[in-house]
């Protein structure tokens, strides 16, 4: 994603997000047509509690997208990666506060290291790492809300509804940019247009794959794999974008990495579900996702 954003850096972060919304909806509608999931979408549209939660999820993911685009395009890709390192800790904290979940000793220790990391990085940056915390909490809350949507929503239909909620404001904003000659999507050649249009695929495919993986993989595997995202972002920011990594900032990241190792160890220590249960869950997921035999 950071490398992709650099190919369309001529556009502002808000224009990029507005186009992501519009083209994501287009891609989702094509996908629903291809997978013959219109009936699933109709069922979801009659579930008012789910729609209210998806509307809130849409607001949260927009805040996340805008913050992330701003960070990458303004030399804060390292801080953006920090946000996604902290995100699992935020998710654990939300589980304790709102779902009354109980944490293991390792999880509490990891949260302690995470808090210490934020304090150290506040000193390193000379201010609170707002970008990182905004990304961590917006995506953590987004996951929390999506988890409460219910069974009427599949990965494809929920993303379709989220982007549909946002499309009208996004089109209004894009129209306003065009009226001021500040839009880039149609004024910088076909190459730039198709790169912007690709934002629908770049946005939707990872989210849909994650939604499918969340139903198929054991929690320990899924949780550990999630750490690959900020690791890659961190490497890109330092090795390719040349962002600074002074010792005090490195110390803060080291604390975060200790927290991540503790979380990963805790996940791997948990007993997995029996093989037959996993097979049953996988079969159910195939039907719910619209990618299995049930939907042709």
UniProtKB/TrEMBL annotation:
Origin: domain of life: Bacteria
Organism of this sequence: Arthrobacter rhombi
DNA-binding in keyword set: no
Pfam family, one: EamA
Membrane topology field: Multi-pass membrane protein
Record-annotated membrane-spanning stretches: 20-38, 50-70, 82-99, 130-147, 159-179, 191-210, 222-244, 250-268
Cellular compartments annotated: Cell membrane
Tagged with keyword Cell membrane: yes
Region (Disordered): 273-296
Keywords from the named record: Cell membrane, Membrane, Transmembrane, Transmembrane helix, Transport
UniProt similarity note: Belongs to the EamA transporter family.
Every EamA domain range: 10-122, 131-264
Gene Ontology CC: plasma membrane
InterPro entries found in the cross-reference section: EamA_dom, EmrE-like, RarD
Name of the protein: Protein rarD
SUPFAM superfamilies on file: Multidrug resistance efflux transporter EmrE (SSF103481)
